Backbone:
């Protein structure tokens, strides 16, 4: 054998084979010592304790859940490293890829003697360990059709091996077809080049029960191990991966020189397109961030509101810690703001908080500012579902008596868009906004500007 082979979560009916080292998923034995790894994903969750089920699927015990997550992270990184190093990984898909694990989080309900604690569990898909996306379907059968031009064809032609499949799958990742369910286009085996390495999805062939005796079984398994060993050498020496010394560039054959120039031009265009794509993505992100005005709360909401206000000409003034959310000046007018992001409507307490900032400003500056309450109401709802008023009647009277302007963040976004699109109308738009007492009347219909 030219290559070292590891079997991760593999078993051969308690037989020992000198050509493969069997490694448990939960062991600390590294896979990086090996050139070829064969993984049976269906066995992985069986290595962890489970005394119960959840939603009809296996539920790992709490301590096993945490151990599994640690092992999973380590093994996933090893698989990534193996492929980067040019190694080959053979994967046997599980019949049922998902199971449940404990998250460590809890929910509590009731009080006193009636208090109950519920442990939160999450569904986990073992296929997530692979660097490709696979959609698989369970299905048992033995009628298999090989891809005629595949370098991996020898895998499906091992003498006396009983082939059968337990799943078929599809993937958006590009790969080399190896085998299908006969007379269909249902894929049961495929090889995926991954960097310098190869990941091969392979049908289940290792059940001793399919063979007449232990000797026959041992012979077949040894043939399989020798086949993947020989195949590894064939993959490594394939002309598709050839390399030439640099001095050969002095000699051109056929239209090689033209092809080289064409590649240079294409690379130049690619670089230009990449830069254009990056710039466009940055522009898109700059535009999309304004959607935070109707989704966010807290400091994030305050920041995007301030950015819109300053872009419209509001000059920020220093604010003491734990004071008003923002103090501005606009063409000589002093302005105090309170910004809120809430799951429902605004409340009188928000107006009272704004009035507090106004009073403190008057006491300190001896000037009466304009108070503006800016609220992102019903922030977790789609805009089309926000049918209730952001500012209910019971608070409007309170704020109106104190000359507050009440504006929702979606209205503020509409105002901002209008000012940016029609700068010649900015003065009249801003005058109407800053002279408002009570609820601002414009841009209530988001469909007019979004």
Residues:
């Amino acid at each position: 054998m030219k290559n070292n082979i590891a079997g991760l979560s593999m078993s051969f009916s308690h037989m020992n084979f000198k050509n493969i080292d069997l490694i448990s998923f939960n062991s600390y034995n590294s896979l990086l010592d090996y050139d070829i790894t064969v993984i049976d994903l269906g066995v992985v969750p069986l290595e962890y304790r489970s005394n119960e089920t959840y939603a009809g699927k296996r539920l790992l015990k709490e301590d096993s859940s945490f151990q599994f997550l640690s092992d999973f992270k380590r093994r996933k990184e090893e698989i990534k490293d193996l492929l980067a190093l040019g190694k080959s990984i053979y994967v046997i898909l599980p019949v049922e890829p998902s199971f449940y694990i404990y998250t460590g989080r809890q929910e509590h309900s009731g009080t006193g003697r009636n208090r109950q604690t519920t442990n939160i569990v999450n569904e986990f898909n073992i296929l997530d360990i692979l660097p490709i996306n696979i959609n698989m379907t369970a299905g048992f059968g033995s009628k298999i059709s090989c891809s005629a031009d595949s370098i991996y064809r020898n895998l499906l032609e091992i003498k006396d091996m009983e082939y059968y499949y337990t799943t078929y799958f599809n993937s958006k990742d590009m790969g080399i077809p190896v085998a299908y369910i006969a007379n269909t286009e249902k894929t049961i085996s495929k090889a995926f080049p991954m960097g310098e390495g190869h990941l091969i999805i392979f049908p289940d062939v290792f059940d001793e029960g399919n063979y007449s005796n232990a000797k026959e079984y041992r012979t077949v398994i040894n043939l399989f191990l020798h086949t993947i060993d020989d195949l590894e050498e064939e993959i490594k020496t394939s002309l598709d991966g050839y390399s030439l010394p640099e001095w050969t560039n002095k000699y051109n054959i056929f239209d090689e020189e033209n092809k080289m120039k064409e590649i240079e031009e294409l690379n130049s265009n690619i670089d230009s397109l990449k830069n254009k794509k990056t710039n466009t993505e940055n522009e898109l992100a700059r535009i999309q961030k304004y959607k935070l005005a109707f989704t966010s709360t807290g400091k994030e909401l305050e920041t995007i509101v301030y950015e819109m206000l300053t872009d419209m000409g509001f000059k920020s003034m220093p604010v003491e810690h734990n004071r008003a959310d923002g103090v501005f000046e606009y063409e000589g007018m002093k302005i105090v703001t309170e910004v809120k992001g809430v799951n429902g409507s605004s409340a009188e307490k928000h107006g009272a908080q704004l009035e507090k900032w106004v009073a403190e400003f008057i006491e300190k500056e001896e000037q009466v500012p304009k108070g503006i309450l800016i609220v992102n109401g019903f922030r977790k709802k789609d805009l089309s579902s926000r049918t209730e008023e952001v500012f209910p009647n019971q608070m409007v009277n309170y704020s109106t008596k104190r000359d507050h302007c009440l504006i929702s963040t979606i209205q503020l976004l509409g105002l901002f868009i209008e000012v940016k699109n029609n700068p010649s109308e900015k003065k009249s738009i801003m005058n109407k906004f800053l002279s408002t007492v009570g609820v601002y009347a414009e841009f209530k219909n988001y469909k007019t500007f979004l």
